[in-house]
Design brief:
By secondary structure, the protein is α+β, with helices and mostly antiparallel strands. It has 15 helices and nine strands. A nine-stranded antiparallel β-sheet has the order 4-3-2-1-8-7-6-5-9. Helix 4 runs antiparallel to helix 5. Its cofactor is heme. GO terms for molecular function: catalase activity; heme binding; metal ion binding. Belongs to the catalase family.
Length: 537
């Protein structure tokens, strides 16, 4: 009897030791591993048992012998057919730009009274919180590309307001590359891959830039330290355009919105970015995910630079020009609130890939920009989302507004309730949805005229007033590798454009380029040949 008791006690001792060892191993694992890497283990911890019985997409329960295709009639196995046919169709068209990105949920909280400037509900009422989804991205990379590539980064913010979705589609630079909407397809083609080699091509980039010099200002931002931020959390973001806004009395203002990171702006030199790239192409994505999982919630302050209706008539430059900055002293800045990201999506595809942003998604009190580039974008973005996600993309969960009553019907799913049995035409006599009257709608019309003239004072100002001497040196060093491989006549055109912008900059780049061209070309990368195998007789 005593031996039996001793055996039982010893058995429980072993169980306790195993649990203790398991807990210790788990503690060590979770504390030495970043949150993104242990996501699957965390799922298992949250679900100690299987979450349900496996089914086909139609809900048929899968019997265990159907989960193996060997030595069976796989063409009679509905589970196999369901699995394979869905796999063939599980990808949607890749975004032309901003293909690689990631998303997070959060909220926007109003911290300052701006009712004298705009009647937009989302920005009024100190303490008011509005849910948001934000998608970060790198512009030129394909899906699976490099987060740390030297290029523009995106930060698209969708506010789910009571008056509809407000999308502030922002970039990591406060200026854009061009102002003519017709230039956009060619600008993107020059930045993307060569149609024959399928490689990024510096010749195409410099050819386009020197043919369209208004692009130079944006290019200098990209070649500077600002071209590689240290993650999405540590960059500012700008919706680029000058927005017209109005208050409830019909008073009108012109503003530029700015998202200022509360983490502090940090940028990476090329050498650091290259070292990180060798280890982790998803550095930005991982950094954002881990910060949120560790409750180190990233935040941005939303502010607006403001000019009155009268102010904008008196200035000596075009404030609607997206390739230039507003001159200091011609505007004042007012904070609006804080954007905080506090939740990662539970599924990447249904949030990041299915999200659809459109700069034309505006709300009462923010009638929007007046320039032609914006007018083109609000049409092009919607067309792009219809191509990628279908005409009902605003009925996908991540894009669904808080309130929606439409006469749109049918089309590819999701259609949700498809407006059920309500009339499908307007006007009607049967109490379908009706439009509202906005007594504060703007009565004055403001017309903006564009010019073709190229003004290099903006890139010159950036060189002389934005960059310290060490930053200027790094911009030069970042420029040389893009000039070395291109044809001599393109090199001369680039040097001429840079010299017209800043003579000393052009001279320094020319001298360093000549030194670089004297160096022997780097040896070709070694080709690792597999050992030859002897053929069996």
């Amino acid at each position: 009897m005593k031996s039996m008791e001793a055996y039982i006690c010893y058995f429980f001792f072993l169980v306790i030791k195993y649990v203790q060892c398991h807990d210790n191993e788990l503690y060590e694992y979770l504390n030495r591993t970043d949150r993104s890497t242990c996501q699957l283990y965390e799922f298992k911890e949250d679900h100690p048992k299987p979450i349900g019985i496996l089914t086909t997409s139609s809900g048929k329960l899968v019997e265990i012998r159907e989960s193996i295709g060997l030595n069976s009639d796989v063409f009679s196995n509905q589970y196999n057919i369901d699995l394979m046919t869905h796999t063939n169709a599980e990808r949607i068209p890749e975004r032309l730009v901003h293909a690689k990105g990631t998303a997070a949920f959060g909220y926007f909280e109003v911290t300052n009274d701006v009712s004298q400037y705009t009647k937009a509900e989302v920005f009024n009422g100190i303490g008011k919180k509005t849910p948001v989804v934000v998608r970060f991205s790198t512009v030129v990379q394909n899906l699976g590309g490099n987060d740390l590539a030297r290029e523009i980064k995106g930060m698209a913010v969708k506010f789910f307001t009571k008056e509809g979705n407000l999308d502030l589609v922002s970039l990591s630079f406060p200026v854009f590359f061009h102002r003519d909407p017709i230039d956009f397809p060619y600008f993107i083609h020059a930045l993307k891959r060569n149609p024959k080699t399928n490689l990024f091509d510096f010749s195409a980039r410099w050819d386009f830039i020197t043919k369209k010099p208004e692009n130079l200002h944006g290019l200098l931002w990209m070649l500077s330290d600002y071209g590689i931020p240290n993650g999405y959390r540590k960059m500012d973001a700008f919706p680029i355009h000058t927005f017209q806004i109005n208050n409830k009395h019909g008073g009108s203002y012109f503003v530029k919105f700015n998202f200022r990171t509360e983490q502090g702006v940090e940028n990476l030199p090329s050498s650091a970015a290259e070292a990180i790239t060798a280890r982790d192409l998803d550095y930005y994505t991982r950094d954002l995910y881990n910060a949120i999982e560790n409750k180190n919630y990233p935040a941005w302050t939303l502010e607006m630079d403001i000019m009155s209706f009268d102010d904008i008539k008196k200035i000596d430059y075009n404030p609607f020009e997206v390739t230039r900055l507003w001159k200091k002293g011609t505007y004042y800045t007012v904070p609006i609130g804080r954007l905080v990201l506090d939740r990662n999506p539970d599924n990447f595809f249904r949030v990041s890939e299915m999200s659809a942003f459109n700069p034309g998604n505006l709300v009462p009190g923010i009638p929007g920009p007046l320039d032609n580039l914006f007018k083109s974008r609000r049409s092009a973005y919607r067309d792009a989302q219809i191509y990628r996600l279908g005409v009902n993309h605003n009925r996908i969960e991540v894009n669904t507004p808080l309130y929606s009553k439409v006469y749109n019907r049918d089309g590819k799913p999701p259609v949700r309730d498809n407006m059920m049995d309500a009339p499908n035409y307007y006007p009607n006599s049967f109490n379908g949805p009706v439009p509202y009257v906005d007594p504060s709608r703007l009565k004055e019309r403001f017309t903006v005229f564009d010019v073709n003239a190229v003004d290099l004072d903006q890139p010159e100002y950036f060189i002389k007033h934005y960059l310290r001497s060490d930053q200027r040196e790094r911009l030069i060093n970042n420029t040389i590798p893009t000039l070395v491989p291109i044809a001599p006549y393109l090199q001369r055109r680039a040097i001429r454009l840079l010299t017209l912008t800043d003579p000393s900059l052009g001279r320094e780049i020319s001298e360093k380029l000549q030194e670089a061209l004297k160096q022997p070309p780097p040896p070709p990368l070694p080709v690792l040949n597999e050992p030859k195998r002897k053929m069996k007789s």
